Structures are given as C-alpha cells and as structure tokens.
Amino acid sequence: YKNPHYASGRTTMVHLFEWKWDDIAAECERFLGPRGFGGIQVSPPNENLVIWSRNRPWWERYQPISYRLVTRSGNENQFSNMVRRCNNVGVRIYVDAIINHMTGTWNENVGTGGSTANFENWHYPAVPYGRNDFNWPHCVITGSDYNCCPDRVRNCELSGLKDLNQGSDYVRQQILNYMNRLIDMGVAGFRIDAAKHMWPHDLRVIYDRLRNLNTAHGFPSGARPYIYQEVIDLGGEAISRNEYTPLAAVTEFRFGLELSQAFQRRNQLRWLVNWGPQWGLLASGDALTFIDNHDNQRGHGAGGNILTYKQSRQYKGAIAFMLAHPYGYPQLMSSFAFTDTEAGPPMNSRGDITSPTINADNSCGNGWICEHRWRQIHNMVVFRNTAGNGALTNWWDNGSNQIAFCRGNQAFIAFNNDAWDMDQTLQTCLPAGTYCDIISGARSGNRCTGKSIVVGSDGRALIIHRSNEYDMMVAIHRGADSRL
Length: 484
Ligand code: AAO
Prior knowledge:
Bound molecules: acarbose derived hexasaccharide
C-alpha cells in the first residue's frame, strides 16, 4: 500500500482542493500530464450534507450523508470520465476517503444528491446505516483525550461527527463497496481521513479486502492501492503514527512544520544537511510529505505557522527544497484564495462552484490560486522527475542560510535565505555547458528567459545570488527544460 503507482518517471502529486471533475480532466490534459505531474488528490467524491446555514463552507464535504458519487464537484459519470482522461495522460487519481464518520447534527438534512438523514436516529437511509452501525455509548472527543485516552479518540465522535463502528462487518462492507467501486473506475489510491480515529486492526481488515488496481487503466496486475493515512502526530500524544506505518503510508505533518520554520529563518538552512529520519521524520517510504494542507493552511488540524501561498517567497523556497530533496513522497497544495477560514470555494448564488479561468501567463483567475501553475513550483516537479533516484551529494553550506546540493549527476540547486548576497563557486555535478535557471525562467529555444549558469569542464559554476532577488533559489538540471 506504499507504492503510488505513478506512471514511469513521475514523482509528485497535487491536491486540487474543491476542484470540479470536468475541470480536473481538462487540467490533466492541458497541464498536469504534459508537465510530468504524477497524480492528484481530489476532494471527497461521495455525497455530503449541504450546509447553507454556514454559507456552504469547505468543510461540508467532510460530512458524508451517503456513498453516492454526487457532490459540488460533479456526478458519477463526470468522476469516472475524469479518472479515465487523467490516466490516459499518465496522471493518477487519489480519493480523499471519509470512512470514520457520517455527518454531525444540523438543522438542514439534505445532501448534495438529494439524500436525507434522520440525525436523532443515526439513520442514513441512502447507505443504509442505522443506530447499530455506530459506536456506543455516545461520547465526544475532548482536547485532553489525545494525551490520555486512545480508546476515546477511536470510539468517540470527532467534532460531533457520528462515529461509525469499523469493527462491524456490515460497516466494513459498505465502506468496501464504496472504495472498491472507485478502484474499478481506475483510481490509484486513497487518503484515509481521520485515520487516527479508527483502530489499526479494523483498517487492516478493510485494506486487505480492497481489490487490486484496475489493469484496464494501465496498472500492473496485482497492484495494490496506494494508501496514505491522515494521522497528525507532532509527538507527545497517546496515539503514535508508528501504529499506522505497518499498515500503509502516513501523512508526515512534522515535515511541513520544520521546513516552514527553517524557511522563515527560525532555524538555519544549514541544519537541513541531515534532513530526514534524523530529524524525527518517518522512514522515507512511509511518508506522504507536504508543506501545507487544506486544514493547516487555515488553522484547522495541526495549525501553527505553516507557510502557505500567502507568504509566497518563503513558501516557494520550502516547496523547492521539498521537491529537490530525495526524502518522501511529495504532495503539492493547490488552493482557492481565502481570508475567512470557513469560506468554501468560489461559487455562484446557487452554490455551484465556479471554475478557475486560465490567464495568458498560465496562472489562474476567478479566485483560484493554482500554486501548481506557479513557474517556480511546476518547474521543480520536472527537476524532481529528472533527479530520479539520484543521491543527494556535494552538500555545501555557508554556516548559515545559504545551501546547495546535487542530485546524482542530473540536477543542482542552491538557496540563499540570508540577508546578504551569495557569491560562490560550487560543484554542480553536471556536464560542462550553459544551463537555464528554471526558477527565474526556463529555456526558450537557444536562450534562457531568466538567469543562466555556466558549468565548466570540472563541473563547477560560479553562483551569484543576491539576497534581494525575487526568489531565493536557482536550480538547473539535465534535459530540455534547463540545458541549452
Ligand atoms: C465542522 C465544524 C464543527 C462541527 C462539526 C460537526 O467546524 O464545529 O462540530 O462540523 O458538524 C473538517 C473541519 C472541521 C469540520 C469537519 C466536518 O476541519 O472543522 O467540523 O470538517 O465538517 C483532528 C483530527 C484530524 C482532522 C482535524 C481537523 O485528528 O483527522 O482534527 N482532519 C481531517 C480533515 C478535516 C476534517 C476532518 C478530519 C473530519 O483533514 O478537514 O474536518 O472529516 C490535535 C490532534 C489532531 C486533531 C487536532 C484538532 O492537534 O493531534 O489529531 O486533528 O488536535 O483538534 C497543535 C498540536 C496538534 C494539535 C493541534 C490542535 O498543532 O501540536 O497535535 O495543535 O490542537
């Protein structure tokens, strides 16, 4: 369950938060496929409660009312069409699976597909679930439970969301019907929402009953779905991420927290010389890595000084380090603009999500940030693909916030997060030649649209990077996008 089954040569996925299925299909064909992205995490595709009393917040999608595939992102046909079109251009789809719970209790009780629920009786007729399918006696998780009481974290309600009993074979079967249907449609795996709130032995039973990936969509025979479990473990709680790594991969929240600190100069970049398990991070193969996610970018979940698109210079630095460094399986965040942390995606007065528009410079409009379309970010996806399995070598630092390293003999990157200029001759591990920096620009015909870097026959190059440049890093690699 730890292999994302990316198409060959691809390494990185992006969370297209709240995107519609038709827009994602188009984005696969016009952008993600051609530019080497490996996959997409999509918002939950199953029917959720419509919460007009809070003006359709983003979090209504974490309130399941049935497993029918109908949401503001689209219906079942649109979903399966998206999966097929994305797989056809080498981009995999990973589903955010909410299997811990159903909705909380609200005044409104109609879902995005018209299904209803009777909250007083724990009755969800469109599955169907009834009282016996939930954990009893009824209780709600409190903040202190995380420190003392694993059984309460697993058996009580998260934020009042009705807590399914995954120990029940009937419940397991409903969940499996839902997940296996998605596998048959060609998805490559799942994010397991709120995994901390489910017993590992129950999850194991569910995972082991999942079907193999669909060979008609290009997966090898016998391939198991990629599973990454959402477990927030910053240390010190009664439940550890180590209870979940024997099952499948885990979201590594310490990764984005530490890099956010470092790139805000609360920690010197030179300490990243031994980035990885020596920092207390999971084993590389167990870690789904990211800087921000849809929760902590707005203060939900494990919040606290996480870099986001709002601090773009530092954010791009942290993302570039994530993509340049061999550790982990990286996931990019692609956001809609927000100030109100509860606000849902751009929508019209009927509550329909409005699509992103694409500007001439490749950026998005209509309220969508599309970090994945920022040149500094998507060019680094190509850098990571090019670096492949190449080892990190030739680490250099100035004893402060200037660092540089090679990836095998494929790629080289240097960062200057100091308040003074960088002026240094460094080993790039690349063949002699002129290379275009892929951060300030790219190659266009026989010239660079941004900076160029000349590598000598000894592999060394003079790297001059001012502290006041638009971005804090320069990156070059073999291959058409960078080498002249
Ligand atoms: C909404 C309303 C609620 C209402 C509820 C029920 O906001 O007022 O009661 O509906 O009707 C999302 C939103 C929720 C929303 C929910 C349903 O975030 O606000 O509730 O949809 O619409 C815990 C879980 C983790 C979860 C996270 C948000 O462990 O699984 O809370 N994330 C996922 C999704 C998320 C979604 C759900 C789960 C539910 O990604 O989008 O909720 O499907 C500690 C624990 C964490 C715990 C946090 C939050 O973290 O370790 O496990 O996360 O507390 O309580 C420092 C610490 C860190 C600590 C953190 C916060 O950072 O180091 O460990 O502080 O204390």
